[in-house]
Automatic annotation (TrEMBL), chains A, B:
Residues 16-70 form the HTH lacI-type domain. This is LacI family transcriptional regulator. PANTHER family: HTH-TYPE TRANSCRIPTIONAL REGULATOR GALS (PTHR30146:SF109), LACI-RELATED TRANSCRIPTIONAL REPRESSOR (PTHR30146). It comes from the Bacteria. One of its GO terms (molecular function) is DNA-binding transcription factor activity. Keywords: DNA-binding, Transcription, Transcription regulation. PROSITE patterns: HTH_LACI_1, HTH_LACI_2. Signal peptide: none annotated.
Length: 345, 345
DNA sequence: TAGAGCCTGGACAACGTTGTCAGATGCGGG
DNA sequence: CCCGCATCTGACAACGTTGTCCAGGCTCTA
């Protein structure tokens, strides 16, 4: 009796297995497998008996075992910086939709912009044998991924390119977008334009800085050191940087903000100071149109980034595509007012 | 020769297994396992040989097989409505952090507010044998989860309670928050107050409506039909609803918005009309403090919801907790201006 | 030096599924 | 009545790992 009880208890609580279903239905193990997977070659009567047994026992196939046998997990991993950042929510959702369309589940992880944590996450995902990876890299050396990619893990980088390996990557045109944004300010008469951005070791930050420099250079403006603030990322430091630029003896008359978080803080600072200062931000932000003035931004399409990357990933998995490619999506300048303010006299 | 080659190729590309490592290091299979898992009982010299073989072959343990053997997957599932919604980003991130602290990975899925899709997702996660589930329910009948929970899948519902089953749930105090918000408007002299919210079949929407009704009743105000708009969710319909309320012969002088998306649209409508209308919204929104007037909101702490739920989940997994509990987190009224506008004469 | 006890290493089964293959069954025709 | 064929079914191995258990070699003590 205790014997019987023990036999039905396994490590997953006491989930029935195909064996249990087979026993109850009075059929062989493989027949249950056939029914569960809708394979042909089962008489309606047998199928009914099996279905009843499944129902009665509450059987649910163990995909872990299935995965082990089949070799494909039907899951992909997404490693991004911070799921709480409004930029990554839509990106993640877009990846998920594509995965869903391919019958795959999405495992999500945040690297918190820490290269070590990125690697740890990626390798954990590889150990799970995800079929593919979409990575928004935090680090700049991804050689640790080479064995995995050789072993068949499809990999696409998004938002920033991979470091020191050759891999697919989907990017926004950070350089072009920043250049356009800064040129927009210049076209409205500004010459002393500040730039506040993230650490230049982050590819997008470096590219946007390059766009800023290029636009300035093209206009024949020499950039002064005090106009640029790099590597500031937390609101408090962004605030200080903005205030310094705006309070200098010859203050900047316009600011280009390198990403959504910077933009938000700069908007705050400007609002507090009362004096109008022109502003163009990289990344669109919600409600930007309702502020007075509306915030002019260089918008990138996060969902499109995610979708494009995921589609590319599944194309890798479906067979083709040996040559890694770099796909660049355009940005869009959205004028709403803040970028069209003329320089203070 | 072909024989040898074939032997090293398995279904995962050609990943080495512990067997391969063992062969190369000239030790037994189990010894490799011991090294990989840091188990005691291996001489330093043997360990070194094994490590070298692992390095040379690029071996990475197959967690699928491990999971099958051990019964725990060290992964939990999170089913929410839409990862792109700024409310769920921080929630998801909070769950992820807790999972990470417990060495677990997070599998994410969006139900798109579709009960069928929710069930499909949940069952897919159960088939993967996730150790636990955090669910923001879309449907109102979760009896399909009973066998899973009996089988030992830890389950916590968030934001809305489970339907027709007894399960842990972590909520914000929607009723109290809405009542406070509406009472705030009443305290500022309003009597004709509109309510725009989601479908009442969604628990939070129903509770917020109840809070609205209660506050009105407590103030002795009889609510007119035209003041309430339920089940509108897409921006276009919210817009129409708001405009109707504000253009009626005896228009409402204040609006209570039932969630973040409604609030945003109502802010737009009010801004376009020029006439000041009082507004209190449920859920905080970014930049709400920078609008003129600032948007007064009833804020809930999405991260706290996620964290609390995840911690509860792992406490379930760690053994204790048989009695399902309902945990309600308080909301916070943040006054910023829009809720303090007096009624138009 | 023999025996006890400890430490290291390896053979083997098991986890729950799927693929292979061969056996059983039923049916029609010669 | 038996043979051949098609259809359905089940036994068995394999996926890559971990848990159990035992063998062999070593040290230490009497």
């Amino acid at each position: 009796m205790a014997e019987t009880a023990r036999r039905t208890v396994n490590r997953y609580g006491n989930r029935p297995t195909m064996k249990d279903v087979a026993a109850r239905a009075g059929v062989g193990l493989k027949t249950v497998s056939r029914v569960v997977n809708g394979e042909p070659g089962v008489t309606p009567d047998t199928e009914r008996r099996v279905q009843e047994a499944i129902e009665a026992l509450g059987f649910r196939r163990n995909d872990s075992a299935r995965v082990l046998r089949k070799g494909r997990t039907a899951s992909i991993g997404l490693v991004l910086e911070d799921l709480a950042d409004p930029f990554y929510g839509p990106l993640s959702r877009a990846v998920e939709e594509v995965a869903r369309a391919h019958g795959a589940l999405l495992i999500n992880g945040s690297s918190a912009e820490d290269p070590e944590r990125e690697q740890e996450l990626v390798l954990a995902l590889c150990a799970r044998r995800v079929d593919g990876l979409v990575v928004i890299p935090a680090g700049d050396d991804h050689r640790y991924l080479e064995p995995e990619m050789r072993a068949g893990v499809a990999t696409v980088f998004v938002d920033r390119p991979a470091g020191r390996i050759d891999a697919d990557v989907v990017l926004s045109d950070s350089f072009g977008g920043a250049r356009d944004g800064v040129a927009h300010l210049i076209a409205h008469g500004h010459r002393r334009i500040g730039f506040i951005g993230d650490m230049p070791r982050i590819h997008t930050a470096a590219e946007r800085l390059r766009g800023y420099r290029t636009a300035m250079e093209e206009a024949g403006i020499e950039v002064e050191d005090g106009w640029m603030s790099l590597g500031v990322t937390d609101p408090e430091r962004v605030r200080r940087a903005a205030e310094e630029m705006l309070s200098a003896p010859t203050p900047v008359t316009a600011v280009f903000a390198g990403n959504n978080r910077v933009t938000v803080t700069v908007v705050r600072v400007i609002a507090e100071r009362g004096r109008p200062v022109a502003l163009v931000g990289f990344d669109d932000i919600e409600l930007a149109d309702l502020l007075r003035p509306g915030v002019t931004v260089v918008a990138q399409d996060a969902a499109a980034l995610g979708r494009t990357a995921a589609e590319r990933l599944f194309r890798q998995l479906d067979g083709g595509l040996i040559v890694p490619e770099r796909i660049e999506l355009p940005t869009r300048l959205i004028t709403r007012g803040s970028g069209e303010i003329p320089p203070a006299v």
